[in-house]
Every structure is written in C-alpha cells, then in structure tokens.
Amino acid sequence: MARAPRLIALAAAALAAACTPAMPHTPLTWADLAARPRPVADATIAYGDDAMQKVDVWLPSAKGPHRTVLMVHGGCWQTEIADRRLMDWAAGDLRDAGYAVWNIDYRGVDRAGGGYPGTFADAAAATDALRSNAARFDLDLSTVVAVGHSAGGHLALWLAARARLPADSALRTPDPLPIAHVISLGGLPDLEDTARSPENGCGTEVVAKLIGTTRADPYADTSVPRLLPLGLPQDLVNGRADRIIPFRMGESYVAAARAAGDRATLHAVADTGHVELVTPGTAAWAETKRLIARAFAR
To answer: Angle 75-234-53 (CA atoms, 0-180°, nearest 5)?
Structure first.
C-alpha cells in the first residue's frame, strides 16, 4: 500500500499514547492488516478525469442480480493517509459472502479539487455512477447499504442525507441515489464536534479544509446532524478501545439522530480499536456483517 507508512505511523502514535501495563488488549495496527494477502477487485471504473475519481467493483461468483454494498474509506478525508485500497480486505470478504461491493474513491482535502465542494461532489458522483453501471455488473439497486469507516462513516451518512441538503447548497443535485441503510464504523458524523475535539485522531484543522470557510454556515450542508432526520436506519459500530475516534462521538450522534426521530443504534464492541473495524475475522467485522445481512433481509 503506497500510503502504508503514514497509516502505520498514525496508528503507532495513537497506540503508544494509549497503552498502559493494565490495558488488556493490544489493538491491531494498519501494518497487521497490510501484511495479509490483498484480494483484488473484479473491475475499476472511472467517474471523472482525476486519478482518484475511481470505483473498484467487487462481484460475487454467483449469478446476479447482486445485493450491493456501497463502501466508503476513511483516512481523515486526506488522500495522503488513505485511499480506497484500504478497504480491499473488507470488500473481498463481503464478495466471498455473496455481496457486490461498490468501493468508491474521492479527492481528499490535500488534493487539487478536494475540500469543499470537491470531496463531497466526488463522493456523490461516485455513488450516482451506480445507476449507469448497474446493468453492466448486474447490480440490484432496490436496497443499497452504505458502509463507511472513520471519515468514510461521515461521508456514508452524508450520502444518505443528500435529499435533505439546503436548496441553495452547491452540493445539491437532482435525484440522488437512494440509500436504504447506513453502517458507520468508527465514524465522525458530527463535523462541529470533530472541530472542537482535539483528542480525535484526525485533529481539528482538517475540518476547515473539508467544509471551507467562505460561507456563512459551512456546516449546514456538510455535517450530518444538521441534516437529520435521515429517514432510514443507521447502525454505528464503535470499538471500546478505539484510540483514533472517541467512543463518545458515536454516543452523541446516536442520541441526536434518535431525538430527531431516526432509527439509530450504537453497537459497542469490546477490546476493539480502529483497525479491527475493517479487518475480517474480528468481532467488530463479524458484527458489521451481521448488520449488513439484517439490512438486506428487511
């Protein structure tokens, strides 16, 4: 992985700061995940001219139409930290379980064209490209389940909220692809909370780069709590030992979503850090697969 050194350094720093002799569990690192054999996607499509405007398509061996999972990677909204390849192991595992995976990429705030509105516009365009490619890959779009990790948890929830964007938002587009269910894995849905919380592993300065500072209220069309209720089920899977994303962020978002009338549930996983959330074979990933199966069964 080209950006593995940065990922490893981020995880190592967080781990070193958090571990004590009494700590019963040593969280996985990005190096642990990257050491595994990397599965390979079945196809890659472009939705724009930039190198990051790509989607990897993962297709099960069985005949379609395929149940489709929209996958959104994290990395603090920064391409230097992570791209879609970070989700290869999770995508491959879902393919083996019989799901098609639409694993999107987007320009981070550290890339030309990223930030506001580019990062959001990329995520939206990559998602809407499902429609024009559904027949080619035999994808069933009647129920699309979005799964996002870390900063991707924010984007997955935001993608489900696009129909509720303010009328004057530069991010508003006609007829966004409907998302039936969102599963956020150690996500950062509340950008205002993130911006005032220096203990989160992404820091606070990145939020301004993401939302821009020239508008009167830059959170109005970017931070998910401002767009509640979403009108669809939301599951948040958070690790109790996550030293990147504070557990309380999941708690506060679920409280806000429920207060707005949404069906939102926080699933706490013991002895689980940030990497376990997207690592096949862990308790956290098993919980996510259970939630995905339940979402499609409804």
So the answer is: 35
CATH number for position 73:
3.40.50.1820
C-alpha 254/C-alpha 274 separation (Å) is 19
Q: Residue 6: is its pLDDT beyond 70?
A: no
Q: 58 exposed, middle or buried (CB, 10 Å; 0-12, 13-18, 19+)?
A: buried
Using CA atoms, how far apart are residues 104 and 56, in angstroms rounded to an integer? 7
For residue 85, give its domain range: 4-16+34-297
Contacts of 190 (CB under 8 A, 6+ apart): 223, 224, 225, 249, 252, 253, 256
Q: What is the mean pLDDT of residues 229-242?
A: 97
User: What angle is formed at CA 80 by the lines to CA 76 and CA 86, rounded to 5 degrees?
Assistant: 70
Average pLDDT over residues 104-112: 98
Is the pLDDT score of 9 beyond 90?
A: no
Amino acid at 135: A
Residue 131 lies in a domain: yes
Q: Is residue 28 part of a domain?
A: no
Q: Is residue 120 part of a domain?
A: yes
Q: Is 63 left (phi over 0), alpha (psi -120 to 50) or beta?
A: beta
- Total domains in the chain come to 1
CA distance 146 to 131: 15
pLDDT in tens, 275-289: 999 999 999 999 999
- 22 domain-assigned: no
